[in-house]
Amino acid sequence: MLRVRLVLSYMGWCLRLGVGSWKYFQLNAPWFNGQRRLFSKLDTDQLIPKPWRLHQTPLANTIMPRNWPVFLKPEWGQNARGIAVARNPEDWQRLREPLLQQPVPYLVQEAAPGKHEFEVFFIRRAADQRQAAILSITETLNQGGDDWPVNSILNPDTRHATLSLSREQMQRLWQQISQLPPFRIARVGLRSNSIEAMLDGNFHIIEINLFVPMPLTLLDEGIPLKQRHAFISPAMKALAELTLALPGSQEKKSIFWPMFFLNYRIKP
Question: Can you list the positions of beta strands (E) in 27-144?
């Protein structure tokens, strides 16, 4: 229901501002691979500053990881669909061949160090895109007892806890995140040993969602439903304003349908 309200609120604000809501898909168009017709994880990986980057490479018969575990991920996917974990060579042998037969290319990514997993969601400010209009951070927790879980909204053991940081801490967080390319809206998954270590820039980025990133604070059941609903309107107003500010000179790309059909080619 919250996701439906999120979409309806965005469409409502677009209507008020006189901008087509379909232009949403052009917000991150500069980073869409038009030839391959996807938001490529390999492309995005090269945009991450080296200290935050995890080693990843296309899955192939000719490679064998040196360290375990590793994550086997489709080059593009939503909600962690299709991700598998190889904890040892036996897992690797069992998983590799079936994944090589998938219609979507797979990647091998090293496991990120760090005791805590965080998700940072942001929408840039239309009037000054060097700043964030919306910035939130949640910690992703898992109750399943697995040391290397695949956390997602599809995993019943996954839950999210919104962090209440001070204004100074939020400024430090944005100083780190703003070192990434100027994505207009994104959700950045990362691992670090602590909040303070993360604010100091000591973390590794697991993934960056550029297609339809959802603010995971809306899934935090520790926040009253009324408060989560209150988050939606100002966030979607900021997003509609950002859509209105899209430069007319930006190259337009067909994004929605290629990504929509690609998602359904990935087996959960």
Answer: 56-58, 70-74, 84-86, 106-110, 116-124, 132-142
User: Tens of pLDDT along 39-93?
Assistant: 999 999 999 999 999 999 999 989 999 999 999 999 887 677 889 999 999 999 9
- Which whole-number Å values give the CA distances from 190 to 204, 246, 263, in the listed order? 5, 28, 23
Instruction: Report the 10 Å Cβ neighbour count for 53.
Output: 13
Q: What contacts 146, CB < 8 A, 6 or more positions away?
A: 157
Please check the confidence at residue 268 and state whether its pLDDT lies above 70.
no
Residue 47, C-beta contacts closer than 8 angstroms, at least 6 positions apart: 31, 180, 181
Q: 218 near 5, Cβ under 8 Å? A: no
Global model pTM greater than 0.90: yes
The two structure tokens encoding residue 29: 């168009």
Q: What is the pLDDT of residues 140-153, one digit of tens each?
A: 999 988 889 999 88
H/E segment holding residue 159 = strand 158-162
Residue type, 51: P
Contacts (Cβ under 8 Å, ≥6 apart) of 102: 74, 82, 266, 267
